[in-house]
Specification:
Layout: H1 4-7, E1 10-14, H2 20-23, E2 27-31, H3 35-45, H4 49-53, E3 64-68, E4 71-73, E5 85-90
């Protein structure tokens, strides 16, 4: 059996304060060749985290923003490279 952690694309993930109750850390490492795979790995290690970011239709929730190396990304099929930096940002709204 393969060890995905050793063989996958390892990236650093910045966790917003609203989700730190899952990770207990402001930054974690996760594995995934795409954002979708990355969130699956995060959810495996931190159950419930993915549901807070991705909805039932497998789309990013409207109040979530994902940045890969500073570039805003909306597609979960976005490919990741080794040592990418992914930031999960909770968008604020109001008036």
């Amino acid at each position: 059996m393969r060890n995905a952690w050793r063989e996958g694309t390892r990236v650093k993930v910045l966790i917003p304060s609203a989700l730190r109750s899952y990770t207990r850390e402001p930054q974690v490492e996760a594995v995934g060749g795409t954002l979708d795979a990355l969130f699956a790995d995060l959810d495996h290690r931190y159950p419930g985290l993915r549901f807070r970011v991705v909805d039932e239709q497998n789309m990013l929730r409207p109040n979530m923003r994902i940045f890969v190396n500073g570039l805003g990304v909306r597609e979960l099929t976005h490919a990741l490279k080794p040592d990418d930096f992914v930031a999960i940002v909770l968008a604020l709204s109001g008036g």
